[in-house]
Amino acid sequence: MASTAPIGVFDSGLGGISVAREIRRDMPNERVLYFGDSANAPYGTKSPEQVRELSDAIVKRFVEQGVKAVVIACNTATSAAANELRDRYDIPIIGMEPALKVACDRGHGNRQRVIVAATPLTLRERKFAVLMNRFKADHTIFPEPCPGLVEIVEHGQLDDHDVVMRTLHQYFDQYDLSTIDAVVLGCTHFVFYRDYFRELLPDTAEIIDGNEGTVRHLGVVLESLGKLAPEDTEGDIKLANSDTSVRIAQLAQSLLNR
Ligand code: DGL
């Protein structure tokens, strides 16, 4: 595969656009084919088998389109499908996981109190249990499934301040937020809520997402294979979606430009 080939990036819907945006910012020479599966979103309340099947169909199509690598811009699909996809396809497949390590490392040895906001499936899968086990002896971790936050993005309600804040309060009022050191945004849809979380949380609580780390990892992998796009090429992002309505196309574009 030539270094000028595109990178396939996919998510259950529009959340992964937050990752595509980061690729555009950090790797401006790369061409990105983004696929959002909004017709089948959310993935986070489906079974692992369903998510594996949907993810496989997307990656199969990317391979037919000649991508040089795939980014699973979805924590949920990574938990359910990444291993199987890596066994099946011989291009690099970059996954995501909640950035719990980043949150815990901030304590420099002091116990951290961390909320991990993610989908129900991500928090139920073995991958997250393994991640929790690495940190739970030394830190206090609160996994919080927030499926409603995925729906709000997919329904185009992200600018509805009342709806968003009401939903955040539903999930987070049970915590004494003044005692929380960090909230990990363990779902790519949630990255669009950064300003709302800032409004909800005291200044002492950090908001952490895995997008930057994922894009950095993508760069390292492509570089090690000699597959980074040449510096004289101009990158772009092509957005596609299984929901072919004008509404979704406009919403996707507005999230990319947000
Ligand atoms: N954006 C996805 C994630 O990062 C999943 C959202 C969903 O479809 O439930 O987990």
Automatic annotation (TrEMBL):
It comes from the Bacteria. GO terms for biological process: cell wall organization; peptidoglycan biosynthetic process; regulation of cell shape. The active site is at 74 (proton donor/acceptor), 187 (proton donor/acceptor). GO terms for molecular function: glutamate racemase activity. Its EC number is 5.1.1.3. Substrate binds at residues 11-12, 43-44, 75-76, 188-189. Signal peptide: none annotated. Provides the (R)-glutamate required for cell wall biosynthesis. This is Glutamate racemase. It comes from Bifidobacterium ruminantium. The lineage of its organism: Bacteria, Bacillati, Actinomycetota, Actinomycetes, Bifidobacteriales.
